[in-house]
Known about the structure:
Layout: E1 31-33, E2 40-42, H1 47-50, H2 57-69, H3 74-83
Antiparallel strand pairs: 1-2
Amino acid sequence: MGRLGTEDEPQTFVRLVGGPLVTGTRFIAPILRCGTCKECFYTPVPDAIKEAPKYDVSVASTLAISRYSLGIPMYRTEQNQSMHGIL
Length: 87
C-alpha cells in the first residue's frame, strides 16, 4: 500500500465572470401616504447606506484604466453601462 503526501504546488482554479466595468446596487425605499390626512411616512434607511458616498474610490481607477490604459473612449463606456441597465 502506498502513502499519500502533498505536492509542492496545489491545484489552482480560476472562475472569471463578465459584466460591466462598474456595477452598483440600487436601494428602493417606498414612501407611504395616508389616504385621509395625506401625511407621508418614509421607510427608515440604514445609516450605512444613507451616509455612504455614491461613488467608490475604485470607480475612478477603473474608468481611468479603461480610458488611458485600454484606450476605451468614454462614450463607449457609457454605451456599455447603459446596455447593462446602469444609468
